[in-house]
Write a structure and sequence with these properties.
Blueprint (H helix, E strand, L loop, with lengths): L5 H9 L1 H9 L19 E7 L5 H19 L3 E8 L4 H13 L4 E5 L7 H9 L3 E5 L8 E5 L2 H16 L4 E6 L5 H17 L2 E7 L4 H14 L5 E4 L4 H10 L7 E2 L5 H10 L8 E2 L5 H13 L13 E3 L5 E2 L4 H8 L14 H5 L4
Parallel strand pairs: 1-2, 1-3, 3-4, 4-5, 5-11, 6-7, 6-8, 8-9
Antiparallel strand pairs: 10-12
Helix pairs in contact: 1-2, 3-11, 4-5, 6-7, 8-9, 9-10
């Protein structure tokens, strides 16, 4: 179905001739395939919906988009970035997106709270000619283009490291993120398969809600129940807390910890290296939102994704890199001056994003 742009709607209000002209120039209705042309000419207005603010990662994500947007604005490519960011549930995020629709944005970048529950509001945006890009975790709606890392692959890397460390028959506990969250579920499904295939025993799974203090308390509780555990697999946003719990129990030399590519954890890791502590941190880039902004500009300019660049409605961008004992000093030397909340990052350049298109 043709997707009338925001400028189509403005023209329609002026009279039948504007409607006719806009209809003649309307784009394709497929995800990532519409927009562009004379009916969505520069400058573009971009919306950003973020439904979780309890993580420093999300703050860095928003700030990264704002910085990249400012560069585009200086060039006249965009005019306004409308940010809807609050700690809210699915219904609250639906209202965020409706607010952006009412602001007549050309594209929406959304970090979704649900894989499926936002489908109806995504359809509303699509029917208004708005291009929608999901970041951080993929959604199923065909009205959306997912621009994400492969969360399953992200989890497999650290799970395989931990499985190798504890060996077949090793006992581990797990500190996951937020139960039911798309990224959390995709990660744990992949990690669980790694542990099953490697013969690693998962004694217990608990939720740390991607929060360092919660992660520390959860790990403290797990250690009280499983004092002889061999390792712990955790996601980003909690590894620093997990480390402190293991350290307080005096077991850093006995319990293997999958870590995170954040400065706070790396600072603890660096301090314990002299005692033989090793870990791994897979980068989960807040800059994925910047990659999506570059994609959005290309789509709004009327470009089509190149053959083979999409899988369904998903564009997978590369995981930037993994920090391990072999390259720790290189990465630590680059970020040691950042705050503990800083996540090691990476995003597509404009040229790299453009390479995804015809």
């Amino acid at each position: 179905m043709p997707r009338p742009s925001r400028r189509w709607r403005a023209g329609a209000a002026a009279g039948a001739m504007a409607v006719l002209l806009a209809a003649c120039s309307s784009g394709d209705g497929g995800a990532g395939g519409g927009g562009g042309g004379e009916d969505a000419s520069r400058p573009f207005t971009i919306g950003l919906s973020n439904g979780f603010v309890g993580s420093e990662w999300r703050t860095q994500m928003v700030e990264g988009v704002q910085a990249a947007f400012a560069e585009y604005k200086n060039e006249g490519v965009v005019d306004e970035l409308v940010v809807e960011s609050a700690d809210t549930d699915v219904n609250g995020q639906i209202q965020q997106i409706r607010n952006l629709i009412n602001r007549d944005v050309d594209a929406i970048i959304v970090n979704p709270n649900s894989e499926t529950a936002l489908d109806a509001v995504f359809r509303e945006a699509s029917q208004q000619g708005i291009e929608v890009f999901a970041i951080d975790q993929a959604v199923t709606s065909q009205d959306v283009t997912n621009v994400v890392i492969d969360q399953a692959e992200w989890a497999r890397i650290s799970a395989e490291w931990l499985a190798e460390q504890v060996g077949r028959g090793g006992d581990i506990v797990v500190v996951n993120g937020i139960a039911g969250h798309p990224a959390n579920e995709m990660r744990w499904e992949a990690a669980q398969k790694v542990f099953t295939d490697a013969g690693v025993n998962v004694l217990s799974v608990a939720d740390g809600n991607w929060d360092q203090a919660t992660g520390q308390q959860v790990m403290t509780n797990l250690l009280a129940t499983y004092p002889d555990v061999d390792g712990v697999w955790t996601q980003d946003g909690m590894a620093q807390g997990v480390f402190r719990a293991v350290q307080a129990a005096g077991r850093l030399d006995q319990i293997k910890i999958s870590g995170e590519a954040r400065v706070g954890f790396m600072r603890l890791w660096n301090g314990a290296r002299a005692d033989g502590f090793e870990s791994v941190g897979v980068v989960n880039p807040p800059g994925g939102a910047v990659s999506a902004l570059h994609m959005a500009v290309n789509v709004l300019d009327g470009r089509q994704f190149a053959s083979g660049r999409m899988s369904g409605n998903t564009v997978h961008v590369p995981i930037p890199y993994t920090v391990d004992e072999g390259n720790f000093e290189e990465h630590w030397g680059r970020v040691s001056g950042e705050s503990d909340a800083y996540s090691l990052d990476g995003s597509l350049t404009r040229d790299e994003a453009a390479a995804f298109f015809q």
